[in-house]
Amino acid sequence: MFLSWGSSHKAAYVGDAGVRHCSACDEDSAFAHFVEYTVRHLYWVFRWTTGRNPVLVCENCNTTYSAGAEDLDSAETGKAIPLWDRRGWMVGVGGIAALIAALPFARVADTAIDKLFVADPRAGDLYETNLAKLMPDPDAPRMYGAMRVVRADSRTVEVEMPKAYYADLLSVQRDVSVGKTDDASYYALEHLTFSRDSIRKLYADGVVENVRR
Which among 85, 175, 179, 181 is placed 20 to 30 Å from 144, CA to CA? Predict the structure, then answer.
């Protein structure tokens, strides 16, 4: 019997964590509370979370700290994780018939929306990208950042590039969650222009990992 299973690592924004002193940048900075977690799935339908790790992130330098017991509100942390990730396992309670009925929906939820966004790019779309795969001689094998679509026409897609990159995708997702990627100062002055076919290929090849709109 063929089993389709897998996992992915995610981060969810819990809320404001106040102003604290950051030992990394040596500044009194605003902090944000996130929960990092792993979503595991079977047949894309039975989903459950493991390894919940509450963290505090300095909004000045993006340094991540483990959250102490005094910062941990299990109810708020739990609510921050999307319902589909937290309760996806309940879809299977109805048995095999429910599994078969829900399977197309689950696959759509995981991939089809991204594909639609890639096929119909619009100004403001965010491409969570491993920038290292765009470079002939990257500084590191993993350089994650958010490219933002500036304009798109029938043939090309123009994007602006982030000023900084991260070694992990979760850091980019945190920036998106707290709205940092909405600020023009997040991006460098230079733009890149791709053909629409190139954007589709970047997504198909896993260079662009997620699309946000």
Answer: 85
> For 42-71, how does the pLDDT look when each residue is reduced to its tens digit (9 = 90+)?
655 566 777 788 889 898 888 889 887 666
b/e burial code for range 54-91 (CB count within 10 A of at least 16 → b): bbbbbbeebebbebeeebeeeeebeebbeeebbebeeb
156-162 vs 144-152, strand pairing mode:
antiparallel
Say if CB 126 and CB 147 are below 8 A apart. yes
pTM here is: 0.56
Question: Residue 12 in 3-state DSSP?
Answer: strand
CB 62 within 8 A of CB 171: yes
DSSP designation for 68: P
